[in-house]
Amino acid sequence: MTKAYWVSAYRAVKDADKLAAYAKLAGPAITAGGGRFLARGLPVEVYEFGLSERTVLIEFDSVEHAKSVHDSAAYQAALAALGDGAERDLRIVEGV
Fold first, then answer.
1. pLDDT tens string for the chain (96 positions)?
2. CA 81 from chain center: how many Å?
3. Cβ distance 8 to 90 under 8 Å?
4. How many domains does the chain contain in total?
5. What residue numbers bound the domain in which 72 lies?
6. How far is the C-alpha of 56 from the C-alpha of 49, rounded, in Å?
7. What is the CATH number of the domain that holds 13?
Protein backbone atom coordinates (compact mmCIF):
# COMPACT_ATOMS: atom_id res chain seq x y z
CA MET A 1 0.00 0.00 0.00
CA THR A 2 1.37 3.40 -0.99
CA LYS A 3 1.65 6.10 1.69
CA ALA A 4 -0.25 9.35 1.28
CA TYR A 5 0.50 12.82 2.59
CA TRP A 6 -1.52 15.83 3.58
CA VAL A 7 0.28 18.97 2.55
CA SER A 8 -1.34 22.01 4.10
CA ALA A 9 0.03 25.37 2.99
CA TYR A 10 -1.27 28.45 4.75
CA ARG A 11 -1.54 31.69 2.80
CA ALA A 12 -2.54 33.82 5.78
CA VAL A 13 -3.56 33.43 9.41
CA LYS A 14 -6.36 35.88 10.11
CA ASP A 15 -7.32 34.85 13.64
CA ALA A 16 -4.81 33.13 15.92
CA ASP A 17 -7.53 32.13 18.40
CA LYS A 18 -9.51 30.31 15.70
CA LEU A 19 -6.33 28.58 14.52
CA ALA A 20 -5.62 27.46 18.10
CA ALA A 21 -9.19 26.12 18.44
CA TYR A 22 -8.76 24.24 15.16
CA ALA A 23 -5.39 22.77 16.25
CA LYS A 24 -6.83 21.59 19.57
CA LEU A 25 -9.46 19.56 17.70
CA ALA A 26 -7.58 18.66 14.52
CA GLY A 27 -4.49 17.12 16.13
CA PRO A 28 -6.39 14.41 18.01
CA ALA A 29 -8.72 13.77 15.04
CA ILE A 30 -5.74 13.29 12.72
CA THR A 31 -3.70 11.07 15.05
CA ALA A 32 -6.79 8.99 15.93
CA GLY A 33 -7.17 8.35 12.20
CA GLY A 34 -3.58 7.14 11.90
CA GLY A 35 -1.99 10.40 10.71
CA ARG A 36 1.63 11.06 11.68
CA PHE A 37 2.88 14.65 11.79
CA LEU A 38 6.19 14.84 9.92
CA ALA A 39 6.67 18.60 9.80
CA ARG A 40 4.79 21.72 10.86
CA GLY A 41 5.59 25.35 11.38
CA LEU A 42 7.03 28.28 9.52
CA PRO A 43 9.44 27.54 6.67
CA VAL A 44 13.15 27.86 7.28
CA GLU A 45 13.59 29.31 3.78
CA VAL A 46 11.17 30.27 1.00
CA TYR A 47 12.00 30.09 -2.71
CA GLU A 48 10.25 30.98 -5.94
CA PHE A 49 6.64 32.00 -5.23
CA GLY A 50 6.39 30.46 -1.75
CA LEU A 51 4.95 32.32 1.19
CA SER A 52 6.56 32.50 4.60
CA GLU A 53 3.50 31.02 6.30
CA ARG A 54 2.73 27.85 8.25
CA THR A 55 3.12 24.53 6.42
CA VAL A 56 2.04 21.11 7.74
CA LEU A 57 3.03 17.67 6.39
CA ILE A 58 1.17 14.59 7.66
CA GLU A 59 1.73 10.98 6.60
CA PHE A 60 -1.05 8.39 6.27
CA ASP A 61 -0.91 4.71 5.36
CA SER A 62 -2.98 5.28 2.21
CA VAL A 63 -4.97 7.81 0.22
CA GLU A 64 -8.13 6.19 1.58
CA HIS A 65 -7.00 6.77 5.18
CA ALA A 66 -6.12 10.40 4.41
CA LYS A 67 -9.49 11.03 2.79
CA SER A 68 -11.45 9.28 5.54
CA VAL A 69 -9.78 11.39 8.23
CA HIS A 70 -10.54 14.58 6.31
CA ASP A 71 -14.17 13.56 5.92
CA SER A 72 -14.59 12.37 9.53
CA ALA A 73 -16.95 14.13 11.90
CA ALA A 74 -14.07 14.94 14.26
CA TYR A 75 -11.99 16.68 11.60
CA GLN A 76 -15.03 18.47 10.17
CA ALA A 77 -15.64 19.88 13.68
CA ALA A 78 -12.05 21.17 13.65
CA LEU A 79 -12.65 22.85 10.29
CA ALA A 80 -15.80 24.46 11.67
CA ALA A 81 -13.76 25.85 14.58
CA LEU A 82 -11.22 27.28 12.13
CA GLY A 83 -13.93 28.94 10.05
CA ASP A 84 -12.49 32.04 8.40
CA GLY A 85 -9.48 32.14 10.73
CA ALA A 86 -7.00 31.19 8.01
CA GLU A 87 -6.55 30.99 4.26
CA ARG A 88 -4.87 27.74 3.28
CA ASP A 89 -4.98 24.90 0.87
CA LEU A 90 -4.87 21.23 1.73
CA ARG A 91 -3.68 18.65 -0.77
CA ILE A 92 -3.57 14.89 -0.50
CA VAL A 93 -0.59 13.57 -2.40
CA GLU A 94 0.22 9.91 -3.01
CA GLY A 95 3.73 8.78 -2.05
CA VAL A 96 6.18 7.37 -4.57
1. 899 999 999 999 999 999 999 999 999 999 999 999 999 999 999 999 989 999 999 999 999 999 999 999 999 999 999 999 999 999 999 999
2. 14
3. yes
4. 1
5. 4-94
6. 18
7. 3.30.70.100
